[in-house]
Design goal:
This protein has helices spanning about 65-85, 90-105, 155, 190-195; strands spanning about 10-15, 20-30, 30-40, 45-50, 55-60, 115-120, 120-125, 130-135, 140, 145, 160-165, 170-175, 200-205. By secondary structure, it is an alpha+beta fold. The chain has a single domain (about 10-205), classed as 4-Layer Sandwich (Phosphatase 2c, domain 1), CATH 3.60.40.10. Strand 1 and strand 2 form a beta hairpin. The two termini are about 30 Å apart.
Length: about 210
Amino acid sequence: MGPLPRLEGRWQLTADDDREPLVAEYVRVGGVHVQAVMPPRARGGFWHVTGTPYGTRLIVGDVVGGGFAAGRLSSQILASWRALAAHEPTIRGVALRLDTLVAEWGEPERFAPAVLMTVGSEAVCCGHPPPLRYRDGGALPCPLPPGPPLGLMAMAGTWAEAGELALQDGEELVLLGHGLDPPERPGLLIEQVTRSRGDALGLHVRREPG
């Protein structure tokens, strides 16, 4: 399997063995290009990118616990995200409101590691591996303040904080769920998710120059 064509859409990518196919999506919003690769078992995985008055905003994460209940909660997170991202002035404010949603879901064992960002501006890391910044053939984790997963902030007594996350021309971001090793370059994300045989999803983010 090679990289996706640069066309918006959704594909099923069949592996070389008898495993279920991956689901891959490619979208473009406000000059930001996002490729998402999701294993078939990622029931609790979620992601979304949307244009807002505050810039292009993105969320990626997964509900811990698995099963159909995780899928229901991830759907509710995305529904709330769509409304909050368009009206909440700060990405930290969005994270705090989503934390309350997950905490009040009624299943204490459910929580959701996630990254939320206004692309090219700031991001909040909620118990999720930080984005990797790729430039000139190398990758470095973005230095974001660590915070608890969505749903656990009150229990931890620590609230998520936003950090600056500029994105310069020629730089690309890759966001990986727990258990995924970084690809050598962003274009190899599909192969990396395929090899992992896990349930973590990955995102590749790049912005148009100018």
